[in-house]
Each structure stands twice: as structure tokens, then as C-alpha cells.
């Protein structure tokens, strides 16, 4: 994400944080500007120029649009992410 939870630096990050909190999902955040290792990892995954995305147990869950769709599905976001 850009920034940290509670101090988001872009609208996508702020919206994802709110969506996760509103759905009772426990999470942590890593800012993409935090250090060289994070930036290099994002570049290897070709995510450096994309909006923030969510990983669950190291697997890409999706970006904001996908998370919003999951939240609208039966059972809500936690169930769709396999966290219940």
C-alpha cells in the first residue's frame, strides 16, 4: 500500500483499509516506499505501478475492485477470503 494503515497516502489504499476494517478482517500493511527490498519484490511481481493489492498467506487476493466484489458476495469478504 501507499502509506500505512491509518496514514494512507492514496485513495485506493484508504478505501481498501476501510473495506477490510468494515468487514472485520485483521490485516497489516507494508508501504511500497518502505525500503529497497519491498520495492524490488513489487518489481519482481510487476506490481510497482499498480494500485494497492491484498495478499492472503502470500497469495494475491486482488485489488480494490475484486475485494469490493467479494464483499458483496454471499458470506462477505472474510468468507470469500477463506478467513472464517
What topology emerges from the helices and strands here?
Elements: E1 3-4, E2 7-8, H1 11-22, H2 36-44, E3 53-56, E4 59-63, H3 64-72, H4 76-80
Antiparallel strand pairs: 1-2, 3-4
Helix pairs in contact: 1-3
Condensed summary:
Residues 8-60 form the Glutaredoxin domain. InterPro entries: Glutaredoxin, Monothiol_GRX-rel, Thioredoxin-like_sf. This protein has 84 residues and is of the alpha+beta class.
* SSE string, helices as H and strands as E: EEHHEEHH
Overall 3D geometry?
A: globular
Characterize the biggest β-sheet: 2 strands, antiparallel
Helix fraction by DSSP (H/I, runs of at least 4):
40-55%
**Rg on CA atoms, Å:** 13 Å
Unreliable residue runs? none
Q: What assembly state would you assign to the polypeptide chains in this entry? A: single chain
> Could you give the order of strands across the largest sheet?
1-2
Number of helices: 4
Mean pLDDT: 82
- Termini, distance in Å? 24 Å
Overall structural class, as computed from helix and strand content, comes to: alpha+beta
Number of strands: 4
Strand proportion, as a percent range, falls in 15-25%
